[in-house]
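Friendly challenge for the regulars: who can give me the structure tokens for this chain first? No prize, just bragging rights.
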Amino acid sequence: MAKTLISELVLRDGHQSTIATRMRTDDMLPMCAKLDSIGFWSLEAWGGATFDSCVRFLKEDPWERLKRLRKALPNSRIQMLLRGQNLLGYRHYSDDVVREFVKKSASNGIDVFRIFDAMNDMRNLRVSIEAVKKAGKHAEGCISYTTSPVHDIPQFVLLAAELEALGCDTICIKDMAGLLTPYATFELVKALRAAISVPIHLHSHSTSGLSGMCFLKAVEAGATILDTCNSSFGEGASHSSTESIVAALQGTPYDTGLDLAAIQEVTAYFTEVRKKYWQFESEFTGVDTRVLVNHVPGGMISNLSNQLKELDALNRMDEVLAEIPRVREDMGYPPLVTPTSQIVGTQAVLNVLTGVRYKSVTNEVKNYLLGHYGKAPGTINEKVRKMAVGDEEVTTCRPADLLEDEMNRLKADSETFAQSEEDVLTYAMFPDIGKTFLQERNAKTLRPEPLLPKEAATTSTERYAPNEFKVTLHGETFHIKLTGSGHHGEAQRPFYVSVDGISEEVIVETLSEIEVSGGSGGKKKAVEKAATSSRPRPSHQGCVATAMPGTIVEVKTKVGDTVEAGDGLLVIEAMKMENEIQAPVSGVVISVHVKKGDSVAPDETLVEIQCTE
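First reply, four minutes later:
Bragging rights claimed.
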């Protein structure tokens, strides 16, 4: 019998950590039979960012993905990552939503629920653990591992004992950023082994280059289950490669008993699959020891890179990575794992791009500072809290105790487009994009972002015209960014663009008279004319603008309103976080240039206020 058990992560965390969670279900299914036959303890295939990515980018029904995987993996435990009271969204949900989500996940095919809370606040884990046990499934409670002045081994041991008391079947050390060192691993596992009786499962990313050594010390200290990822999507910001760990333990008291040759068949397949997703690769997903300082988790770095690229600010990554630990300290040293990784990371981006720390503060940061996500591990910077939320009362009870049941309201709100209880839960997770997804699915108009052919990559920096501009057509304004193009010299040439953040292919037919009459200068003039935004540029202190591109999710003012400096005027979504845009001055609103759903960019006047000061 195998002494060490392996959970394979290639179907979830592997591609989340390397290609921004973009692998499609159709690319998973052909290798499922082989994965199913190898004998892994579990296959992680759902949860985490996959639900969001399916709805937002891939235009796949995440519930349908789960059903298809369940059918294709009849002999395997399918594992998911669940954020406790956050489920798979970015806020706390009411207890009835948590129970219903767990129930439906279990009935659709999940066997193992890995449950964690970004704050390690046990109050946020209890309901989901109880729901998993009621469904007769395996509950794996997590310690979100981190290092800071307020974290130590005795504290982690206490957390593990609490999780066992709640009924967890296994305890996972979730080292999402790869911060563990070999001897720290040994001491932690040894201490846990002495305090709890259930199996210990180790999850560690390879970002710092230390995870393989940590795994060896973990099994020596008493861990029995390890998370690895097939080498096709392994190492770096991902995880130690499955093949390497299997080989390292062969012939030892910790032998996994897995067939290395069979695993390498999986490697050959997914190595080819990964090439299709070249446009989502990042230079920031390799080994990077700076993680030991900035604590950016593997699942976040590829998304952060992709988001900065969309903001045309990838050159500022180093500044953002330096700012993240400063923001984390201000917030009382939370472990950086969803949603706190996104909350801290997005605020760091705002601090860097605006040039003034906390000039713009996301709604999620405000909610964090008000205790809506739970109790911070350390002391919050009161100056920052005061700046962000003023004298608002801070929540001290379990945050979900303040939430009324939501399922009946969600069902009523979604009755015109939700066709099942699973659809209602999709809407619950992501009301705006979920609603749009379900409506498009019902109308059979879903269009996934395209996978660009390799030749679409733009290698030359020489351009005849701007590569990012806005186009207004029939009253609708579109944010266009050129990301690549097909071969020169063709009568019909494909251009690959991002339209309001969605990748598209546009076929442009060359007209010779434009080429002759204008030349390169003529082309540039034509495009620059098209690029003129319909919104005026800020010209005085009453002009309200945004610090970063995004989508308007709420307009809170109208022409004629009297506003005070600091009043909320708009809510913009950027990098999956919401940011309230506030009035810079007191006065009367004389124009509003946006509506819900509009894409906006910096240096545009979104609202104009006539000052009364």
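The CA atoms of residues 324 and 348 lie 5 Å apart. Residues 459-465, 486-491, 510-532 have pLDDT under 50 and may be disordered. Your move, everyone else.
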